[in-house]
Amino acid sequence: MEKLPHALLETVPPPAGRRALVYAGDSGIESRFVVVEPDASLETLRQAIAGGATGIALAGCRTGADIQRLAVLLSVAEAEENLAEGSTAILAITDGILPAPASPQGFSGKTTRLAGLIWDQRGLVKTLGVEPARTANGEWPPTFAAARAAVLLAAAAAGIPAYDSDSDLAGEAFLADCKRSRDDAFFGRLTSDPAQISVIETVYAGGRGSSGQARG
Q1: pLDDT (tens digit, 9 = 90+) per residue, 80-90?
Q2: Going by fewer Cβ within 10 Å, which terminus of the chain is more open, N or C?
């Protein structure tokens, strides 16, 4: 499966009561990713792809085994819905508490369906029970920075893009945060704020270091 281009991952109101992600790529073609939990049933996946989902976003993902289980169920669901095997992509949403990229539980080689990793800082807040306090220049505290870096490293080891978490920042602060994120090697990010969409599309489409100097 080819890498997704620099792009926006946008959270949208759920169709028919289901949460969803919409991916808008450089081609302008939108793909809908229905969000499921790690224990999602075969029937849930069948309903998702029968309803037009082109991908599944796996929330709470921690290991390659989570991806492999979903991939196996998707193969069955595709067969039952008369779809080509492997036609449904997977995005893994993770809080960043991940195994080492080279470990047996890493993501490399688990499935060709895996199209990207998404860092979920809100998920990490729930896991740790603490709210992060960024520094004056917008940097994450050490625990959150380590989890965020783990997502980037795991994605790099698997040869797939990583997408940054959503942000409550606005205006120039959000623009600067997107530029830092892009220069850290994220391909895009989540948002639930329509006002952030044009900023995300503009910043990440430029590629790493387009602000004049990539951060070391």
Answers
A1: 999 999 999 99
A2: C
